[in-house]
Amino acid sequence: GLNTTEAGINSTGGKCKAYRVDITKREEVYAVAKEIGDVDILINNAGIVTGKPILECEDEKMIQTMNVNT
Q: How many Cβ atoms are within 10 Å of 51's Cβ, its own excluded?
């Protein structure tokens, strides 16, 4: 969807560049932020769910969920 959205905005005269970043990897976030520079509008769209009751969720999945969603 990123490429479609980017192309749609750019085709109507807007200016858009989409980036995909794993926000659980701090170094990746910093590297892309440095590459991008100043930003007029930023849309962060990140979130995961396991679909399991919390007490049935593996520790690793809970840690990942908290790291991404918060």
A: 7
